[in-house]
Amino acid sequence: MQVSNNISYKPLFRGATNPLIRDLLIKNKSEANKNIGLAFGVDPDFDRFQRIIKGKAREELKRFISPDKMNVSKGGKVVQLPMPRIDLPKFTRGTQDEGGVGSGSGKKGDQIGKIGKDGEPTEGGSKAGEGEGEHANEQWGPEITRSEIARLLIEDLTLPNLEPKGMDNVKKEDIKWTSISTKGSKINIKATLKNAIKRTIAEKGESFNEDDVYIEPSDIRYHTWDVEEKPKANAVIIYAMDVSGSMGEAQKHIARTANFYLSTVIQHQYGELNAQLQDETFSDDRFGEGVEEVFVIHDDGAKQVSEKEFYTTTESGGTRISSAYKLIQKIIKEKYDPQNWNIYIFHYSDGDNWGDDTPETLKIMDELLPQVNEIGYVQMQSYGSGEFKSSLEKKFGTSHHKVRSSLVYKSSTEEYKKVLSDMLSERKKEGN
């Protein structure tokens, strides 16, 4: 066995001549750009084109595109938007039997096209044509992570970082391969070779030669691990939506859109927070780390549903808001110990509650306050009484640090920004 400091490395890849790299370079590129990719390894036009398209997608997201128009993938961490089909511009060669620029039988000043009665060229035919025309196709735009969306919103609205509680109570066990042992399953090659060299030198003395080195069972060393405990921030976000007959589709659409963006910001912030707590670098893959989501819908009664059902269900019937908070209270008691979980509740309704149900609802909310980080109530414009928001604010005030409310009149960028600001902006700890 040879041990030498003079090591020569044979390149595994030789630029674009390697088939693996060549495939990567020309993937998704137009046929006209293959030679550029092969020759230089980078197509600056294509990269610039992709940046422009991605920038347009970000601008679209600033207008609070509805989640039902997005393609959400990769565990809910990545979205794509439908965009008009745009191909990378390219030059194409003509054929020899076609005239080039400035060729043909005409002369300078000739009119092109048919001449109308007024002496001006006409556009198109005089009658409606037959057959289908060509339509601009839509395609999914580039992938954008929800963490990117969150950063755009946080920067645009200057939203503060959330302040979790209970981080000292929850620990994440992390395995670190830090030790060496004579027993194990994962061989430490460096330590093993070091032992073999030391033993051979001791045996051979001055006659030691590198070719004499060999490994005996007693030389073998293994990696072992230590379990390191790191703090972790856990959060559960409970979303409740009124799906009664008084909530029209337009109102449900507003609620679901606002909910998607609230969820996006909170999940991003908890991913960042856990990275900081564990002294690790944040990446967009950590979006939603430590976060669980619970979805509840209600009319006269409440039930827990899947995320898909929450964003698609259409119900009818009367409204009893207390049913949602009773179910939320039950879910927290059974699964989410407030000592270990940061609990956020967001409720969407038009505020048309049934009869004398409002006092009971406010009583349950009051009981929940010591257990939760926040209760956010978002009310859509009501076609009925819409009294719940005013009753809520009469009970808790408009500056309570745990109870927040917002009123939305229509689906617009400014209205959604207002909801995010009302729900997540910094507020002094006044009240209970």
Domain tally:
3
- Total count of strands: 13
The main β sheet shows up as: 6 strands, mixed
Catalogue the unreliable spans: 1-42, 125-129, 132-136
Neighbour order of strands in the largest sheet: 10-9-8-11-12-13
Distance between the termini: 74 Å
Question: Per DSSP, what share of the residues sits in E-state strands of 2 or more residues?
Answer: 15-25%
Q: What does the secondary structure layout of this molecule look like, with pairings?
A:
Layout: H1 19-26, H2 34-40, H3 44-61, E1 71-73, E2 78-80, E3 82-84, E4 138-140, E5 144-145, H4 146-157, E6 171-181, H5 189-204, E7 222-231, E8 235-242, H6 249-277, E9 291-298, E10 302-305, H7 307-312, H8 322-335, E11 342-349, H9 357-368, E12 374-380, H10 388-396, E13 403-408, H11 413-424
Parallel strand pairs: 8-9, 8-11, 11-12, 12-13
Antiparallel strand pairs: 1-2, 2-5, 3-4, 6-7, 9-10
Explain what the structure shows.
With 432 residues, the protein is an alpha/beta fold. The chain has helices at residues 19-26, 34-40, 44-61, 146-157, 189-204, 249-277, 307-312, 322-335, 357-368, 388-396, 413-424, and strands at residues 71-73, 78-80, 82-84, 138-140, 144-145, 171-181, 222-231, 235-242, 291-298, 302-305, 342-349, 374-380, 403-408. Strand 11 (342-349), helix 9 (357-368) and strand 12 (374-380) form a beta-alpha-beta unit. Helix 4 (146-157) crosses helix 6 (249-277), helix 6 (249-277) packs across helix 11 and helix 8 packs parallel to helix 9. The model is unreliable at 1-42, 125-129 and 132-136 (pLDDT under 50).
